[in-house]
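Today's session is about reading a structure prediction critically. Students often jump straight to the picture, but the first step is always the sequence itself: look for stretches that repeat, for charged clusters, for runs of hydrophobic residues. Only then move on to the predicted structure, which in these notes is written as discrete structure tokens rather than atom positions. Here is the chain we will use throughout the hour.
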Amino acid sequence: MSTTQTLSREKIAAAAIAIADAEGIVSVSMRRIAQDLGVGTMSLYYYVKTKADLIAAMDDAIMAEVVAPSLPTNWRAALVTIATRTCDALMRHPWALHSMLSVAPGLNAMRHFEQCLEALAQTTLTGKDKLTLLATLDDFVFGYALREAATERKIDLDFAKAQLATGEYPRLAEVFGEGREPVSSDRFQLGLKLILDMVAERR
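Below is the predicted structure for this chain, in token form.
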């Protein structure tokens, strides 16, 4: 069996994702993937025809990480599971937050969407309400992951303290003053709870 015969679309996508995770999406190329897999560059084109096709394969591989093997029967618990798996996948591959936005849904994206709707199958929500809820959850998950993936801003503590001491920012001082509690480290789960609480209330 030749090396080429051991190739697959999934193996190529996995190699591309490993490169993107380590060095960024800009480092992903057919030549680099072939080098890492120890094959000729042209052998890849039997499985992925273009760079866009490669990106689609990578997106489908990431979406496979999102699809849950099984879901809780409770709709809220099911959505929390799906949202958490989605967030975890995006945190593992932060470059995907920008690079995969324009990719057409593949099979695993469709499986993910089907799973989301299955989680809501026993609710009394209308089709429109289900889609609105899922879009809202996506907005929250992507926004959270994007913020977490961003480089931390450097804060000039001396400057901040001096400004708070002027008394011109009483609300900021109330929240960020000495001895105040930091932002909750569990705000992802808290955010999900707030969204789902509102849905349950409307039901």
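Discussion point for the tutorial: Residues 127-149 form the longest helix (23 residues).
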